[in-house]
Amino acid sequence: MMTLGTTDGAPTSLESPARQIIELDVQGMTCASCAARIEKKLSKLDGVQASVNYATEKAHVVAPAGLTADDLIATVQAAGYDAALPVPEAKPRDRAAEIKRRLIVSATLAVPVIAMAMIPPLQFPGWQWVSLALATPVVTWAAWPFHRSTLVNLRHGAATMDTLISLGTSAAYLWSLVALIFGNAGMIGMTHRWTLSLSHDHQLTSIYFEAAVGIITFILLGRYIEARSRQDASSALRALAEVGAKSVTVLRGGAEVTVPIEKLVVDDEFVVRPGEKIATDGVVVSGDSAIDNSVITGESLPVDVHPGSAVVGASVNTTGRLVVRATAVGADTQLAQIAHLVELAQAGKSRSQALADKISGVFVPIVIALALITLVVWLVLGESATFAVTAAVSVLIISCPCALGLATPTALLAGSLRGSQLGILIRGPEALEEAHRIQVIALDKTGTITAGQMSLDSVVPAPGADADEVLKLAATLESASEHPIARAIVKASHATTEQLEDFSNIPGRGVRARVHGRPAAAGNAALMSDQGWAIPDELSQAAADAAKRGASTVFVGRAGTVTGLVAVTDKIDPNAAAAVGALHELGLRTVMVTGDNQAAAEYVAAQVGLDGVRADVLPGDKFNVVTELQAGGTVPVAMVGDGVNDAAALSQADLGIAMGSGTDAAIAASDLTLMRHDLMLAVDAIRLSRRTLNTIRGNLFWAFIYNVCAIPIAALGYLNPMFAGAAMAFSSVFVVTNSLRLRTWSPKH
Question: Catalytic site residues?
Answer without folding.
Answer: 444
